[in-house]
Amino acid sequence: MRNNRSVIVALLCCIVMKATAQFPDKLKGGLRYYIDGKDSAHYIGLNMTGQFWLRNTATNPFTTVQGNPQSNITDMSIRRIRFVLSGVLTDRINFFVQFGQNNLNYLSARKAGSFFHDATVDYAVVKKHLSVGFGLNGFNGPSRFANASVANILVLDVPAYQEVTADTYDQNVRHLGMYAKGKLGKLDYRVSFAKPFVIQTASGSGTEAINAYSAFSTLPPAMNTQGYFMYQFLDQENNFSSGTTGSYLGRKRVLNIGAGFNYQKNALFHYGTVAAKDTIQQDMKLFAVDVFYDAPVNKQTGTAFSLYACFSSYNYGTNFIKVAGANNPANGTANATTLFDKFNFGNAYPYLGTGKVAYIQTGYKLKDGLFGKLGTLQPFLDMQYANYDRLKDGMFVFDIGANWLMYGNNSKLTLNYHNRPYFVENSNGAVVQQSRLGEFVLQYQVSF
User: Fold this and answer.
1) Which domain holds residue 122?
2) What percent of the chain clears pLDDT 90, i.e. is strictly above it?
3) Could you tell me which of 280, 297, 312, 295 has the C-alpha nearest to residue 386?
4) Cα angle value 155/157/161 (rounded, 5°)
5) Pairwise pLDDT comparison (245 vs 22), residue with the higher score
6) Which of 12, 76, 150, 341 counts the most CB atoms within 10 A of its CB?
7) Which residues have C-beta within 8 Å of that of residue 434, sequence separation ≥ 6?
8) How many domains does the chain fold into?
9) Is the pLDDT reported for residue 13 higher than 90?
10) What is the CATH number of the domain that holds 338?
């Protein structure tokens, strides 16, 4: 463990020595080709984001990698790599295409995994007020980070519990369907209607076969309806794409109150009696309310404050629970004695379920030029507390860390400590917290 941390420190020093080069100003907003001449309203743009991880994980008890026990893992991975081609072709026609890959680590299948995240076109029926679009899209509910813009996340990673059906009925939180978006005064809205993907083509992580507890149904899916509505009291946010911003670093003064929903009929199923195998179907009904504040504290010095809080009420049916870990560095357990334990390895924990969830994230950007030409710092903290029906104990997880903003979000280094619970199912069938474990991540992000 000590040697692993020494490696992290040594690599951090190397990055520090290489970080003196200034990021080109002309790449700050991506590359653009203006259709009607320089700085016109019509353009085609190219953007890229890459997030690279160096990590040390204290793994859950009984964790294995290819059948071999592992109590501590140090690994390197590409958390995300994304390329975006988008544009405003006319006063009414926009398009947005995003391609890339998530979680390329030492366990990944080689030469595989890249896919389209978004492929949409929309038409402004009433300019600014109503646009209707089609395609593979992430105009989701029920909360702000149901689809986050990965280039400007405040903390290390998005709150995964808000990606409510990730890689089950959707493709990395995107559905095939149609959407409507727009602004009515200070009310920003998005609603979508889609045909979900069938469960059988999902990656399988965290998906259980039918049993006494609710699971995502393998029966043909019904249509899915989502919506999210924000009343924007101060500066107005751009709704060109579906991704929402984590922090503007003091460039905007934003105060929003939001609310949303996600509904799908007969999305879950379970056996009423396991012996009789009498299938009971249940609707997925998810609701949330949240508040987002992000604003400069002192425009002269560049300090800025960000705060986001959310309360969610999730109904996935009887005692639904999903156990998974972000970019999991392990692939098995020697303790799969119950269905709950099946996915409880590596850095996994029960992050999503039927019940109530409270979440908060906050950060403070220190003054510009804190390190001269090397940028400044943005300490942050986030916490999730959930009362899930399947768990006897409350589920609490938190992250604490800091972004070293070498050139805003275009070039930043993040050091994060993640602390999670380890739950087990006891002999009485109750799922209780047994211990807590930690994970250190050093991430470098480049974006234009």
Assistant:
1) 2-447
2) 84
3) 312
4) 115
5) 245
6) 150
7) 61, 422, 423, 424
8) 1
9) no
10) 2.40.160.10
